């Protein structure tokens, strides 16, 4: 009713004045205007309301009069107001968190499902829609697109891209094989020559022939692991058959290259000797504050310095018998190939000079490769025991307070501080009588040197010999560790005489000449030849003989124009 009354009131105002005008005395004004104040308006009665027929009907643009009823806009507005009033009264969307289970709550749930169903029904589909790409297409991008289509075939594949598969691409029924395959195969650690060729795809027949040819030049077991083989395989004789071996080349030795080539259907071995210079490498220098650092500064390899120190230590004390002004002299076997490779070998000569005169001269001699002194070829002499490890003395033989047990007791050996994993050497020839775990000594090795003399080595991280093994002086028998009762990596070195421990630093080993009269002249002649080598002569550039250079020159290199000037 309120809505209808409001609508009627609005229509009446559109038709004309709603109330009659009053005069100054509160009556109706003949002019039709309203001159009274606010107090006069309150005194209006229902009788003063103008009747609907008091004013003439106002014509509408369509020719109808307003007396015919409200127009379409007014009716729509009235319907809208009625619907809003009904919705407010009914409350179609209540709060679903309250009054759960009531009719009002179920009415709200129905509204939720209805709106959700309408949203799903009116939602757009997910089908693709063609549209122009927003990305600018330049020449580079165009090449990228074209490389994924069949277009590169028409343009000679100038984009350099692989063609992507498309409906226009059809697989070939049969693809022609390559007429030749070139590859590099490497002989691995613990691998065999035959397995290496099988992995490369060489047939069993060719493998047998190649093995027979190469074994006639060098033993297959002597080919070092890591050697690379350049292999060329030819075209298969029939479908499914192995490819034949056309050529194979590799470095067999430092001074020899070998190749297997196929000529007229048969494999043949071709030798390619490499010129090698064997001038020994001689290094000299002043001892200074440290023999090791001075030798390293002079360019001596670490392994050569260690061999030098072990050899000299058997005859001279490195701490007391060698002064800073003395000169060291060591000569190593050395090879240089015509291809530029260099190979450092074992220690050949170890010498110490004082005031320009030789104080000690040692040279490697014999099948066992032992170091012999030039001055001791005809005499028996004794020398202090050598150093079992490259390190420094941290605890000597005698009574001391044990660092772990905490009380004073006999220390029946000498401790040498060294880096973890440093090699431990036998101080003299002998036989291993014990190798294993030994109480507080940890990993322990004991060697019997004969004549009632023995040595022991404790706290090893790893043992390198077995019980009953015969060892040579300077042979590695284990590695420095910290097993047993130990506070850190070091070597506990003991010496025994008649089964009782003695100070290892007080032992002197008796050496007797082991070279008879027939070999003495050869020994001295060999030493004189070594001493004529100039220091650093082996480091000079190696020039092959002219005949060998001409043989190695290729035909195509001879056609190259010569430089003038």
From TrEMBL:
> Record's InterPro entries?
Cell_wall_metabolism_enzyme (IPR050570), Dup_hybrid_motif (IPR011055), M23ase_b-sheet_dom (IPR016047)
Query: Which cofactor(s) does the record list?
Result: Zn(2+)
Query: Which one of the record's GO molecular function terms can you name?
Result: metal ion binding
Which keywords accompany this UniProt record?
A: Hydrolase, Metal-binding, Metalloprotease, Protease, Zinc
Compositional bias (Basic and acidic residues) at which positions? 543-565
Pfam families the UniProt entry points to = Peptidase_M23
* Cited PANTHER family: CELL DIVISION PROTEIN YTFB, PEPTIDASE-RELATED
Q: Please report the name of this protein according to its UniProt entry.
A: Membrane protein
Q: Which organism is it from?
A: Novosphingobium pentaromativorans US6-1
